[in-house]
């Protein structure tokens, strides 16, 4: 009798466990057929982006720190996961700190101020939230042949200003962070 119960428990456990399918970065969504999957940085592509990047011009600078988080859930209770890059930044203009984010949240639910996603070999999507204006811009983070990186940001597509009754009142501040700069990776 003990053996039958043990076999039944083993079979139930075996059939209730579903294997997680692993896909490499850049896998098109239409090629993912499972609900339980993990988009993994198998080829260590994130390594070229992760680290501290800096732009300087006179007494002004923008420093962005990017960190990889492995197997981050897509949302709370999610059955899909992916390796993601989140970051923090410090912007100094004429020697004065204009904006500084001091923590890098590891979960997308914590609304990271900097998110970087893989697009192609040297091109990444980037979204940066400005903590002063409470606005965000998105664009590209491109690794150049000389080892520098170029960030080009613009307003997100589809931001027509439509508001719902629950939206906080808008502020009239402009986006405060630099939008087109070339950065050098700190060693």
Strand content: 35-45%
**Share in helix:** under 10%
Query: Reading side by side through the largest sheet, how are the strands ordered?
Result: 3-4-5-7-8-9-10-11
Provide the succession of SSEs: HEEEEEEEEEEE
Average pLDDT: 85
| Count of DSSP strands | 11
Radius of gyration: 21 Å
What is the 3D shape?
globular
Distance between the termini: 65 Å
Discrete helix count: 1
**Major β-sheet profile:** 8 strands, antiparallel, barrel
Question: What oligomerization state is this entry in?
Answer: single chain
Name the structural class: mainly beta
The residue ranges in which pLDDT falls below 50 over 5 or more consecutive positions are 5-17
Please characterize this protein's 3D structure.
With 187 residues, the protein is mostly beta strands. It has one helix spanning 2-16, and strands at residues 21-24, 37-40, 51-57, 60-73, 80-93, 96-100, 114-120, 123-130, 135-143, 149-154, 180-185. The N and C termini lie far apart (65 Å).
List the helices and strands and how they pair.
Layout: H1 2-16, E1 21-24, E2 37-40, E3 51-57, E4 60-73, E5 80-93, E6 96-100, E7 114-120, E8 123-130, E9 135-143, E10 149-154, E11 180-185
Parallel strand pairs: 1-2, 2-5
Antiparallel strand pairs: 3-4, 3-11, 4-5, 5-6, 5-7, 7-8, 8-9, 9-10, 10-11
List the defining traits of the structure above:
mainly beta, 45% strand, 1 helix
In short:
This protein has 187 residues and is mainly beta. Helices cover 8% and strands 45% of the residues.
């Amino acid at each position: 009798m003990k053996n039958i119960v043990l076999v039944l428990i083993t079979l139930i456990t075996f059939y209730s466990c579903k294997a997680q399918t692993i896909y490499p970065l850049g896998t098109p969504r239409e090629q993912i057929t499972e609900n339980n999957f993990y988009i993994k940085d198998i080829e260590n592509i994130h390594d070229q982006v992760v680290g501290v990047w800096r732009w300087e011009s006179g007494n002004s600078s923008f420093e962005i720190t990017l960190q990889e988080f492995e197997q981050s859930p897509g949302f709370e209770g999610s059955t899909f996961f992916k390796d993601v890059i989140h970051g923090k930044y410090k912007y100094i203009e004429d020697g004065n700190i204009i904006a500084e984010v001091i923590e890098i949240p590891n979960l997308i639910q914590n609304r990271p101020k900097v998110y970087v996603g893989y697009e192609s070999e040297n091109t990444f999507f980037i979204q940066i939230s400005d903590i002063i204006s409470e606005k965000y811009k998105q664009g590209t983070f491109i690794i150049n042949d000389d080892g520098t990186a170029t960030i080009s940001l613009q307003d997100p597509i589809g931001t027509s200003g439509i508001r719902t009754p629950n939206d906080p009142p808008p502020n009239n501040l402009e986006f405060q962070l630099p939008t087109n700069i070339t950065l050098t990776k700190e060693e």
